[in-house]
C-alpha cells in the first residue's frame, strides 16, 4: 500500500494497482508505521479563514485495510468546530525519532481576533511510540515565537541531530525569506531537549501559570491547565499540554559553496567570518582561517528547492545534509562527523540525469546509504557508505552492530565478509567458571560467573541478561573492576537442571543483535514449592465470616416477626370458604400434636380436604413434604368415613406419630 498524488493505492500481486477507498484527502506528511498504520499530519493552508469541507484534523492515525481496500481514521487530534476561524496555516516541516519517542516539527500561523494580528511560530510535538495506536493521546508540545518569525516568511525548518554527543545535541536549522527574497539560514539551539516535554506535562498537571493547553493557545485564549494527576506519555483527548519557551542559542549560518569541495564550520559552533564579492572566509582557530572562492551563495540563490538531513548513530556517528536543486549539478551533499568540519561536495558523475532527478533523497537500509530516483525512467542513483565495518573496534560491537552489514571479527579487526558464517554464541567471550552449582530456598542466592576474558562495556547502552532455564532470571548484576567476573542475585522460579545463558543486548538500535555465552556445566535449581495453606486458611475464614453474617441476619429477621402476625395469617386463612379444607388440615395437625383424634373428622367437612389446594398451601407443602404425605395417608384410610376399628385406630395413630416426629418443627412454627 502506498500514497500517490495524495491518493491511497494498493499494489496487488506486484501487477495491479488499485485505488483504496478514503473519505478524506491525503494532503501533507505521512509517516508509515507497522500494522498497516500511518501517521498523517495534514497540510492546512487557509489564508482567508474560510470554513473547510470536510473539517481537518491536526494529526490523525490512519489504518490501511488491505482486505477491504479502505483507509479509515483510527485516532485523531481533532480541531474544535470553529478552529478554521483562527488557523491560517499548519504544516509539518520535519520529524525525528529516537529512543521510543517521535517528534514532529510544525510551522503554523494563527490569527488573533482580539489583536487583529497573525503570529507565525514553530511547534514541536512529542508522541510516545510505545503507546501503539494510542500514541496521539500522549501528545505534548513546546513552541517558539521569535520577532524574526513575524517579519520574514519561514520557508524551511529541519532538525539537526548530532549523534556523536552524549547526550545528543539537537538544534533547528530554519530558513526564512526576507522581503527582498534573500534567504536567511539560522541555527536555533535547544538544550536538554528530551526532558522539556516531561517537564511541560508535569507543570501543566500542577496548574502552573504559563502552561496551557494547545487548544486554548490556538484560539488565543489566556487560560491555564486544570490541576490533575500527571501520567507520563498520557493526556486526554484534545488536551495537549503546551508552553512557550526561548531558544538557548541563536546563530546564523552561511551556505556558500565553492565549485568543488567546500569546508564549512561545524554546525554546532559559532564562528567569525568575512564575506566579499568573490570569497567567503571563516575562522577555524585563533590563528587560522580558511577561504573559498564563491561559486554558489545559497543565501541569495533561490534555486535550492529543499534541504534534507539524515542521521546515523553508532558506529558511524555522522549526519548528512542534502541541498536539492532543480539542476542536479547545482545541488550539494554535505556530511559531518565528530570533531570535523562540515564538508560539502558538488553533485556530479550523473550528468545524463541532470534534468531528471527527483528533489528528494531516501535512506537505504542495506547496504547502508542514500539514493535518488529519476523522474521519468525510475533509475536509482545510490551512494553507498563505505567502511562501515571498520568503524567497529571490538568483537562485541562488530557482531552486535555489524552482522546486518556482513561484518565479521577476524584477526583482531572487524571486516566485511559476505561468505562467512556468522556465529554469535561463544565467539567473543565464553563462560570459564560458575558457582555455586546448586540453588535452593535455603542456599545463598548469589551466582558468580567468570568469563575467559574481560568484557568491555562502554556507553553504547548495552546491558546484560543472565538466566538459567526459561524462567530463572538473575538480577542486580555487578561486574568486578576489570569486567571478567560478574555477581548477580538468582531468582528461583522453576526447578530443574539448566545451563547458564550470559547475553549482551542492546535495545536502542533496531539492527543490534544479541551475543551470548553458554555454560558447559548445569546448575541444579530447587525452586520453593508454592504454599497454598495461607490462601486456604484465609479463604476458609472468609467463608466462615460470611456464613456467620448470614446466620445472624436471619435470626435477627426471625426475632422481629410478632406472634400476632402468624395468628392473623392463620385466621385470615381459615375465614375463607374456598380454603376451608386447608384450615381443616392445619386443625388436624394441631389435634395430632395433642394426640386427640376427633370423630369430627367423619363429618362432611372431610370432603373439603379433597378440594384444590390454595397457593399458600402449595407453598406450605413444598416446605413440609412429610405433612403432605401423612395427610394423603390419612385421607386414604378415612375413605369409609369410619374410625371405630381398634386396629384402624392404632394404624392411624402410628401414622400420626410418624407425621408428628417428622413435622414437629414446622407444626410448632405454624402455631406461633
TrEMBL record:
Skewed-composition ranges (Polar residues): 620-633
Domain of life where this protein originates: Eukaryota
Sequence segments annotated as region (Disordered): 603-672
Compositionally biased residues, Basic and acidic residues: 645-658
KW Transmembrane helix (keyword) present: yes
Positions of transmembrane segments: 532-554
Keywords from the named record: Membrane, Transmembrane, Transmembrane helix
The protein's name: Uncharacterized protein
Amino acid at each position: 500500500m502506498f500514497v500517490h498524488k495524495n491518493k491511497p493505492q494498493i499494489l496487488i500481486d506486484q501487477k495491479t494497482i488499485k485505488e483504496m477507498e478514503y473519505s478524506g484527502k491525503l494532503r501533507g506528511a505521512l509517516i508509515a508505521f507497522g500494522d498497516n498504520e500511518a501517521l498523517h499530519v495534514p497540510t492546512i493552508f487557509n489564508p482567508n479563514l474560510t470554513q473547510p469541507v470536510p473539517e481537518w484534523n491536526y494529526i490523525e492515525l490512519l489504518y490501511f485495510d488491505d482486505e477491504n481496500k479502505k483507509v479509515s481514521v483510527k485516532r485523531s487530534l481533532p480541531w474544535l468546530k470553529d478552529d478554521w476561524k483562527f488557523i491560517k496555516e499548519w504544516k509539518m516541516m520535519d520529524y525525528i525519532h529516537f529512543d521510543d519517542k517521535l517528534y514532529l516539527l510544525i510551522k503554523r500561523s494563527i490569527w488573533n481576533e482580539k489583536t487583529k494580528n497573525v503570529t507565525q511560530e514553530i511547534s514541536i510535538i512529542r508522541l510516545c511510540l510505545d503507546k501503539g495506536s494510542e500514541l496521539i493521546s500522549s501528545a505534548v508540545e513546546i513552541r517558539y515565537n521569535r520577532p524574526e518569525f513575524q517579519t520574514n516568511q519561514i520557508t524551511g525548518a529541519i532538525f539537526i541531530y548530532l549523534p556523536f554527543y552524549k547526550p545528543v545535541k539537537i538544534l533547528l536549522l530554519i530558513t526564512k525569506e526576507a522581503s527582498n527574497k534573500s534567504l536567511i539560514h539560522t541555527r536555533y539551539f535547544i538544550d536538554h531537549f528530551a526532558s522539556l516535554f516531561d517537564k511541560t506535562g508535569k507543570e501543566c498537571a500542577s496548574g502552573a501559570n504559563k502552561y496551557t493547553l494547545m487548544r486554548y493557545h490556538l484560539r488565543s485564549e489566556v487560560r491555564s491547565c486544570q490541576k490533575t494527576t500527571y501520567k507520563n506519555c498520557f493526556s486526554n483527548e484534545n488536551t495537549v499540554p503546551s508552553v512557550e519557551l526561548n531558544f538557548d542559542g541563536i546563530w546564523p549560518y552561511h551556505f556558500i559553496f565553492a565549485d568543488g569541495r567546500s569546508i564549512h564550520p561545524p554546525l554546532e559552533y559559532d564562528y567569525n567570518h568575512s564575506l566579499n564579492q568573490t570569497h567567503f572566509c571563516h575562522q577555524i582557530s585563533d590563528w587560522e582561517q580558511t577561504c573559498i572562492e564563491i561559486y554558489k551563495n545559497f543565501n541569495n540563490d533561490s534555486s535550492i528547492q529543499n534541504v534534507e538531513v539524515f542521521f546515523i548513530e553508532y558506529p558511524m556517528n555522522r549526519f548528512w545534509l542534502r541541498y536539492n536543486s532543480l539542476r542536479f549539478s547545482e545541488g550539494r551533499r554535505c556530511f559531518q562527523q565528530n570533531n570535523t568540519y562540515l564538508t560539502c561536495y558538488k553533485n556530479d558523475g550523473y550528468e545524463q540525469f541532470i534534468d531528471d532527478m527527483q528533489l528528494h533523497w531516501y535512506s537505504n537500509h542495506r547496504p547502508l546509504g542514500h539514493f535518488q530516483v529519476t523522474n521519468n525512467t525510475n533509475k536509482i542513483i545510490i551512494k553507498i557508505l563505505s567502511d562501515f565495518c571498520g568503524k567497529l573496534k571490538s568483537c562485541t560491537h562488530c557482531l552486535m552492530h555489524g552482522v546486518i552489514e556482513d561484518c565479521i571479527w577476524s584477526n583482531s579487526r572487524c571486516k566485511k565478509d559476505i561468505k562467512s558464517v556468522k556465529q554469535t554464541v561463544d565467539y567473543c567471550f565464553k563462560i570459564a567458571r560458575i558457582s555455586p552449582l546448586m540453588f535452593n530456598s535455603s542456599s545463598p542466592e548469589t551466582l558468580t560467573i567468570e568469563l575467559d576474558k574481560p568484557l568491555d562495556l562502554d556507553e553504547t547502552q548495552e546491558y546484560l541478561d543472565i538466566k538459567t532455564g526459561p524462567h530463572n532470571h538473575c538480577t542486580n548484576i555487578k561486574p568486578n573492576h576489570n569486567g571478567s567476573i560478574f555477581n548477580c542475585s538468582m531468582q528461583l522460579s522453576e526447578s530443574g537442571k539448566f545451563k547458564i545463558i550470559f547475553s549482551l543486548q542492546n535495545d536502542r538500535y533496531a539492527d543490534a543483535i544479541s551475543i551470548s555465552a553458554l555454560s558447559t556445566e548445569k546448575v541444579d535449581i530447587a525452586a520453593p514449592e508454592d504454599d497454598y495453606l495461607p490462601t486456604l486458611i484465609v479463604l476458609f475464614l472468609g467463608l466462615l465470616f460470611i456464613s456467620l453474617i448470614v446466620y445472624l441476619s436471619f435470626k435477627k429477621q426471625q426475632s422481629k416477626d410478632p406472634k400476632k402476625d402468624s395468628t392473623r395469617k392463620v385466621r385470615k386463612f381459615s375465614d375463607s370458604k374456598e380454603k376451608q379444607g386447608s384450615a381443616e388440615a392445619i386443625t388436624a395437625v394441631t389435634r395430632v400434636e395433642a394426640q386427640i383424634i376427633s370423630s369430627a373428622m367423619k363429618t362432611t367437612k372431610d370432603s373439603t380436604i379433597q378440594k384444590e389446594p390454595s397457593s399458600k398451601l402449595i407453598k406450605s407443602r413444598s416446605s413440609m413434604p412429610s405433612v403432605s404425605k401423612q395427610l394423603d395417608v390419612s385421607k386414604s384410610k378415612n375413605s369409609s368415613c369410619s374410625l371405630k376399628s381398634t386396629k384402624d385406630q392404632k394404624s392411624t395413630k402410628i401414622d400420626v406419630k410418624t407425621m408428628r416426629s417428622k413435622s414437629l418443627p414446622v407444626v410448632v412454627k405454624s402455631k406461633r
